Amino acid sequence: MLLAALVQAQTPTIYKHVAADGSVTYTDQALPGASVFELNDNMVEQLDLQVRLETIKYEAGEALVVHNDLYAPVQIELAVSNVSNALGAPEQPIPWILLPRSKIRLVSLAPRDPQQPMRYTPKLRYALGDPRLLPKNNPYPLPWIGGPFQLTQGANGQYSHFTPKGRYALDIAMPEGTPIIAARSGVVVKTENHQSGRGQNPSGNFVRILHDDGTMGVYLHLMRNSVAVREGQRVELGEKLALSGNTGNSTGPHLHFVVQRNVGMALESIPFNFAQPVDSLPNFAVMSR
Fold first, then answer.
1. Rounded distance, CA 220 to CA 201, Å?
2. Contact indicator for 173, 253 with CB cutoff of 8 Å
3. pLDDT tens digits, one per residue of 36-67
4. How far apart are CA 100 and CA 109, in angstroms?
5. CB-neighbour burial class of residue 167 (10 A; exposed 0-12, middle 13-18, buried 19+)
6. Taking the mean position of all CA atoms in its chain, how far away is CA 18?
7. Which of 83, 256, 60 has its CA nearest to residue 159?
8. What gap in Å lies between CA 23 and CA 57, rounded to an integer?
9. Residue 152 burial by Cβ neighbours in a 10 Å radius (0-12, 13-18, 19+)
10. 248-278 pLDDT tens trace
11. Are 158 and 166 in contact, with CB atoms under 8 Å apart?
């Protein structure tokens, strides 16, 4: 049972109880030995090594170069503060949209006194996606084959769908191993495929796809080692992505599907509609590859 099945008019405290045989129960009853369960659906995507600032030293000074190794554009902002003995430091942060798999030199610094060291503090901020693109409000085909299934938690849920990144997410209960297919075409930006059980990432195994209008579809809690696509790959509508699972901070087998976009240095979920009710059979004209 998904945690969302416990939704009531007012949000109760949810307890996690582990029985002697190891079975886990989530309930609103404070059973002996139970602990309060805190649900966190924030995704953990390690981007620090893929969007990074490099300092290159040369004879006349230093250059600050920003690298984007992702298969998606990033919005960046580079600021330089606490400047001492350095010429060329910008007075205001420098904004830029850095294309996928590219780099740019944003700042060149030279010492005012070549006999003394330069001192400064650089700070790089970034957000995945290009905020200049406007999303298309086209309905999404159901991103799975099988069913009908049940929607167990919708937008602005009381248990996990209340953060900016997940406010409009949907949870659909389905058996583990259900084929998950692309709801829209695009480029695979990030994947996680090797998490088993709860692991370190609340989202479990996932696939993030960048659509042509700058939005991103994210498919979470996938089965371990089932992700069938790779980062940088172009996928088409209906192409097989993975199998549904029960990994990450999940209280039962289900697919967590969310659409996100960069709204200006912040990745947030946005409203979307499926092309048909969740609890109806999917369109089998859209078949996985």
1. 10
2. yes
3. 544 444 555 666 689 999 999 999 999 999 99
4. 26
5. middle
6. 30
7. 256
8. 58
9. buried
10. 877 789 999 999 999 999 999 999 999 999 9
11. no
